[in-house]
């Protein structure tokens, strides 16, 4: 019997070029983004400029975390304490957490079998809020054309959580460029790794200026290379609080060489995804998530469904795969464990029962595909899952 011995949480090392850039920042002692020598732009300002260019956005801001980027975007578009904000029931804790952090109230929208936001449920709930914080959870993009039409019709401002879709596209448009603001994470398990970190992009000058002020620019916004002109700040600088959450030059130095390699990394993830997907296809009792033609996804993780399986059988699949070295995460657990949790475990936020969503969440099995896995590793992982799902499926 074959076993897998790799680690699902082991990322690739930081590229040598990035290590050298980080060491140079440390030797300079100038780690704070606004601590720059005469004529020096600083790593953070350069990262913002390069990220804006890579995404085709007018403005970019680097911040302390993905969760910070989300909260900063919400504030910058004008969400106030007590406001309701629509968001996905299938997402991770920092998303409702960002809404709660500014005193606003999440309104959860259900998930479809394709693991994207349920547009019918969104339509029904749209009147309850002015803002949708759309989480492209696990890299699944919904029909972004239909979503934009719905937002337009319902007067919803769209903020995108692209923690899992940096580099992905819908009909050629980069994820994060459809909304008023696109937010990204550079935490270790995302598509670029600075330990912790976040980025946001927007084409709206006032939103960009507010975000810069919020992040804690003091009055040094003119040192930014991907921010609007000083005249835009005149209109917002006295009434936008400083909620410090800047990125530092050390992390930006680590990220810039990674940004240059982003496309190649995304292709490497997706190659791994396709091997696992092919290996799982046709397994009795297992539903592969069919990806739409319009979506160019980044396969940094893969999900499949065991729809309507009993908890007991699901538990057996998890433990049998684990015994052979394959770590699957289950979103159906009644109590949150590790990174998985569900809308009804965020008890600070009210939620109505969503039986259809619960049925999907109970069926989702989820697995990371770090780039330290080879294509052969991925084929082996798929064979193990296929065998164990098959064995449990057949058993009475
Ligand atoms: C990681 C993540 C974030 C942001 O996370 P940070 O850890 O704050 O950088 C936001 N949304 C989703 C879905 C995530 O997985």
Q: What would you say this structure looks like, in words?
A:
This is DegT/DnrJ/EryC1/StrS family aminotransferase. Keywords: Aminotransferase, Pyridoxal phosphate, Transferase. GO terms for molecular function: pyridoxal phosphate binding; transaminase activity. Belongs to the DegT/DnrJ/EryC1 family. This protein has 396 residues and is α/β, with parallel strands linked by helices. It has two domains: 16-260, Aspartate Aminotransferase, domain 2; 262-395, Alpha-Beta Complex (Aspartate Aminotransferase, domain 1). The protein is 39% helix and 14% strand. It is built from 13 helices and 14 strands. The protein has helices spanning 16-28, 43-55, 66-76, 94-101, 119-125, 144-154, 205-216, 230-234, 249-260, 262-280, 311-323, 355-363, 375-394; strands at residues 59-63, 84-88, 105-109, 131-135, 157-161, 169-170, 173-174, 181-185, 198-202, 287-288, 295-296, 301-305, 329-330, 364-368. The strands form three sheets. The chain has a seven-stranded mixed sheet, sandwiched between helices. It has a four-stranded antiparallel sheet with strand order 10-12-14-13. A three-stranded antiparallel sheet has the order 7-6-11, with no helix packed on it. Strand 6 and strand 7 form a beta hairpin. Helix 1 (16-28) runs antiparallel to helix 9 and helix 10 (262-280) runs parallel beside helix 13 (375-394). The mean pLDDT is 96. The structure holds pyridoxal-5'-phosphate. Pyridoxal-5'-phosphate (PLP) binds at residues 65-67, 91-92, 94-95, 135, 137, 161, 163-164, 185, 187, 198.
